[in-house]
Amino acid sequence: MRAAVLREYNAPLSIEEVPDPVCPPDGVVLRVEACGVCRSDWHGWVGEHPRVKPGQIGGHEYCGEVIEAGPNATHAVGDMLVAPFILSCGSCPQCRSGASNTCLDQRLPGFVEPGAFAEYVAVPRDFNLARLPEGLSATVAAGLGCRVTTSWHALTGRAALQGGEWLAIHGTGGIGLSAALLGKALGAHVVVVDVVQEKLDHAMGLGMDAAVLAGETTAAQIKDITGGGAHVSIEALGIPATVNASLECLRPMGRHVQVGLPTGHTARMDVNMSAVYQGNLALYGTRGMPSWRYPSLLGLITSGAVDISPMIAREVALSDVSDELAAFNGPTPPGVAIVTDLAG
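RESULT FIELD:
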């Protein structure tokens, strides 16, 4: 099969013919219909993700058709499935408590095992996967990827966002724009923050309530707009400037959710803990989404309560993935890229 392989950090991926994947006994092989290009892929491409090593086939935001099913699989040939990026074991204490995104024995295609920047991908533990609802395209389903699922869990499973609350979003890339759209669907007032005016204009065109061009007065501007500070703030980049702006823009008793990935040189950072102390703030970490929460998210989308399609800016070929990853080196344009031509 054709695949995009990481051979050297910060260098174009190598488009190669590699062996077809072997079907896991407890899983399936998918013909990849679509796969998102995510900032987490970029962290691996630049060498800052601790699990991604040369030789890796990336791609963890995938949707595809089952072409082979193992003897212990729960799905069948012909099923169209969408996957969370964390494949849980289903039996550890974390899984049994419902927090399968914190599973103690995770499988991670695209990070540790071969991912979906390829024509086919082997997926163990296929009980984690969800069937694609009627009317939802594979491209949009791949766009859900880790960005929409993570945002959904951040807002509802961690911050418990309520209708009428103010929600601040720091960074309007894939995760940030997802959180903004979902926040509006949940009835929140949403203020978006970014360094790129074009991205703010795009978000405002999708119905957000206010926009702030990021700078030294970001937190003060949000407090002014919201009449005292946001109730919930989502940090969607994983860098010190936005982490601190997120904390400092909250009203007393506010909730900060760390969604952006702090890794490599940002794994440890200076944080304004005085703002946390003085404001009686709550800090939540979140990564991924328990797979059992797919029905609530997919139901919201298929009911028409939220339209995710404006997030998808372009469909690209497998040979274009390197350019998409390199684009994350600087400010990016609005929307996300989805690989839909796996032979190109």
